[in-house]
Target: Phosphatidylglycerol--membrane-oligosaccharide glycerophosphotransferase
Amino acid sequence: MPISLNTRRWCALTYIGLCIGYAIMVVWVLPWWTPIVTTLAWLAVGYHFHWGHPSQRATKRKAWPWSLVPLILWWVYIYLDDSFGQLDLGAVIFHLQAGIEENGSTDRQIAGVIYTVAAIVMLMAVTWLVRADHRWRLWERVLSLFLLAFNPLLFGLSLRGASVIDDDEAWLNDRYRPPEIVAAPRRPPNLIYLYMESTERTYSDTRRFGDAYEDLAQLGKEGVVFQGVQQLDNTGWTMAGMVASQCGVPLMPAGLMHDNQFEPLSDVLPGVNCLGDLLHERGYDLTYMGGASTKFAGKAKFYRGHGFDTVLGRDELEGKAPAGYLNDWGLYDDTLFGLAEKRIRQLHASDKPYAFFGLTLAAHPPFGHPSQSCIDNQGPFDGTDILYSVKCTGWLVKNFVERLRAEGLLDNTLVVVASDHLSMKNSAWEDLIAEDRENTLMMLGNGLRPRVIEQPASMVDVLPTLLEAMGYTIPDHRAGLGVSLLSAKPTLVERHSLEEMNQRMRSENVLQERLWNGVN
Model:
């Protein structure tokens, strides 16, 4: 039986209303019932104005809406916003160029398929409405301009494009200090740097997040805790957080500077020296170890290109994991820490100073991948509570550090425990964005006196702080764009504000050219 015109009319209007309501809910982080209320309001207006009624059809000509492409771009933006919480155009550009193969975001891939189907159905509904109602044939042309003008995805591109006519495109580069060591301690210390995936210090607020951060808070009492470490643009994903903390610069994507636009980058930031380069020159044995593939987002290229001797990820380590004990990304953190402990014993037994860098993945949004050992310790995981996964990360990190200390493996060693970046969208998102947020950064051992240092800063300040914590002398307490938080000098964020730093980055070209000098 053919579907009646009236049924098609209300199905099309209802579906469009649900899509509008869903977009409003995602963009403004509103309650689940937002699409329902929006749809009812939309249908009420449609009923009042007789949208799609047979009396409004002026011609049978099958016109195509002008708004189809603008609507597609909005669907792309909403998908990215729903996936990550806040659109970071730099992250999108970088991952497309550095490589997105072997990522573990199965849930977002499934969501991508669902979004695609939903978008196609909406485009069909809009096309029907435009053809059924001559007024919409006129209105949607104006709507197209509105959709293009206010799409944050295009707004970000326009801001970056405006840099070509900016009068001060070297502001950041003028403040960049190439990392340099001018004096070293008599006995160079070892370094263990643990990046905790998305485990920001914001979780330490017990009023909002309970005891999720308890183990990390206890660990922080043994060393220096840095408060006020904010997130600059282009430092808000794993590879960018690593670059900021090790190179003292934000990871500004290569963009159009990359000659072969449709091929993966050959190198990651070949134009600057980073921590690995400095330590390699001083004879350090450098190791990176993570549970996920090092092919994803150019991690292997970055570490191997900046002095690291050993780079290990899923491909190299999964054979050492218990049979079948893997998640979408790779190794669970308890497996990783067991292997890391063995590696550190080997490094400790050698005569060379060493630096070990590890990356957890338990708290990876949206829900996390807690290890079996955490489930044994914390009880059953409901599959969605990111706070459970955050607590798992803290518990594993604290136990790992304590085991190393008990074995005497932390003598003459600086331990850095830090988040790689602020979390992207997860099950605690509304509470996370309710107030100001900041990254985790704490340093233990190597003679550091336990205390709290509170200062407006960003992850680019980690590099000079870490070098001074290791006992190295650097010019004017500076390296890259960073300033040592162990000194009395103000940071760039402190002097100019986070907002101005981000604005300057959008119009910066010269530092970007420096970072990617030599890339193919």
Notes: Residues 161-165 have pLDDT under 50 and may be disordered. The first helix runs from residue 5 to 28.
